[in-house]
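Listing 4. Sequential folding, example run.
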Amino acid sequence: MKRILITAALSIAAIGTAVAADLPQPAPPPQAAAAYIPTVAPVYNWGGIYLGINGGYGFGQSAWTGGGLSTGNFDTSGFLVGGTLGANFQSDAFVFGVETDLDYTGITGSIASACQGAPGVLGPCQTSNDWLGTVRGRVGYAADRVLFYGTAGGAYGDVKATAFGVTNSQTEFGWTAGAGIEAAFADNWTARIEYLYVDLGNASCGSACGGAPVSVSFTQSLVRAGVDFKFR
C-alpha cells in the first residue's frame, strides 16, 4: 500500500511540473528608465582680444572766455565714426577690460554774437572737433551673452577755434566716463550701444583771437553703436 501511495505522489508531482512548464511564464519586471540629463548650453566667454567699428552722434557745449570776451555756452554737435581695439578678462560673471578707440568727427558749433564783449570786434566764434580718441578701463557684469558695463579713462582730440577766417587748432587731453550694453549674437561677434561723456578741458583761442588769452572749452556727450569681432 505504501509503495502505491509513493508512486501516486510522484506521478502527481511529475504531472504538476509538466503542467507548470506548459503555462505562460510571467513577464520580467520592467527595467528602470534611464535618468534624464538635460543638455546645458555653454556659458558665453567674454575673454579675449577684439577689434571693431563704431559710429554715432555727439552733442555738447563750448564757451569762449577771457580777453574781454565772454560768449557763454553755445551748442556743438555732429556725427562720428571710427575703430575700436580692446581686450577682456572674465572671472565668473565679472568682466574686466581695457579699450581704446579713435573716431573721425564732424562736431561743430558757433554763436553769431560771440565777440560782442571784445572792443571793436563783431562776428561769430566757432568751435569744432575733427578727431577724438579715448583710452578706457571697463568693468562689467555678464548675464551669459549680455554684458552690462561701466567705463572711464582718458580722452584726447583736436579743438579748433575759428574767428574772422582765422583758425587755431590744438590737441587737448581730458577725461571720459560712461556706460553701455553689449550682446554676443554669434560666437565671435558682439554688438553694443554706449554713452560717453567727454571733457577736453580748455584750449587757447590764440591767433584766431589776435593773440588774446582766450580760453575755449569743449565738452561732449557721445551716443555710439558698434560691432566687434573677438579673436579666440
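-- end of first protein; second protein begins --
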Amino acid sequence: MVGSRKLAGPSLTRRRLLGGTAAGAAALAAAPLLSACGTKGAPKESEPAVPDLSDTDKSVNFSNWSLYIDTDENNASSHPTLDGFTKKTGVAVKYTEDINDADALYAKLLPPMRAGQDTGYDIIVPTEDVATKWIRGGYVEELDKALLPNVAKNLLSSLQHPEWDKERTFTVPWQSGCTGIAYNGAVTSKVGSITELLTRDDLRGKVALLHDWRDTVPLVMLEQGVDLATFTDDQFMAAVEVVQKAVDKGQVRAFTGNNYTELLANKSVYACLAWSGDIVQLQYDEPKMTYQIPEAGQLIWADAMVIPQKAQHRKNAHALMDYYYDPEVAALVSAYVQYICPVEGAQKVMEKVDPTLVDNPLIFPDAEFLSTTHTTRLVDEETQKKYTTAWSKVTGT
C-alpha cells in the first residue's frame, strides 16, 4: 500500500485538449443528469478471445492523459501509486501519457480496432463520447466484475448507471470534472455569467474560450435557457451566433486548449472558460485565481478506464482498475490531479493526505454543487460534422 503524504500542487496543469468531449459526461450528478447519450449500445459479435497472458507475463500497458496521475515531486517520471501497485501485486506497469486529444485518440485506434487487432494497450482512458463509440462498435472488453470488488464497493452511487453504459459493463470512471468560468481576481472583478464574459467592456480582448465547441457552445446554450439533453440544430446555431458577435467586437483574444492556464497566469487574459481542476492548481501560485460556476450552471464530464478488445493482460488490467478504487490510493491521485474523485471513502482519507482539500467541492462535490451541473446529449457523426463546420467559422480553424 502506498503511504500517505501531502502532495504539492503540480507546476503544470493537467487538463488536456478536449477534442472529443465537452460537456461530456456521465457525471457525478443525480440520476436525471445521467442521460447524456440515450443509446445503450451493444457490442458487435466478438471474434474468438485472444489468450490472457496475465499469469505468465506480469505486466500491464496503461495509456492516459498527461498529468492525470500522482507524480513524485522530485522525479516527474515516478508515480507513487503505480509503484505501490507493482509492490503489492508484482505486476509491472508500462505507463504512457500519450493521449493529447480525444478525436486524435479515436482516429489513431479505429483502424486496428476495426481490423480486430491488439492496440498494444491493456487500459485506455478515453473521454465519455469516445468510450461510447467504442462500446457501440464492440471494440472494448466486457468487464469481469468479480475481479473488481473495490469498484463494486466504492464507486460513487451517482456514477454507477450512466445512460451510455447503464450497468458499467464496459467502463470504470477514472476522474471527473467541470467546465465553467475562471478569472484572475488579481486583475479583474468577479465574472459570474457567460453573458458577462462575452460582453463586459473591461474584459474586451482579455477573454479566452475553449476551442472545442463541445465545451463552449453548451455553456452559451445554458445561458439561453436551452435543455442540453434535447437541444435542436437551431438552438445550437443561435448559440454559435452569440459567440460570433463577441468575436466580431474583439471580446475574444483566443480560442484555447490547455494553454488558457498560461494566459491566465501571465495576465494575457483576465477571464476564460476553464476546467475545474486546473484552477485549483493555479491557486498555488495566485490565490486570487477563481473558478466560478456560471449563473446558468456548469458542465460536468467524466473520463473512464476501458480494456480494449484483444488486450493481452486483461486480468492484470482488472487488478489495476480495482487498485485505484482503494480510497487510500484514490486520495493520493486526487491530491495531485485535483479533479472530482469517483471513489467513496477517499474524502475521509484526504484528511491525512492534505486536509486543505477535504472540503473542496471541486474535488468532493456536495449536493448543492451537483445541483448546478449539466450534461449534454451526444450527437451522431453527421450532426457532429455539421456543428464542427459551423464552429470552425467562428474560431477561424
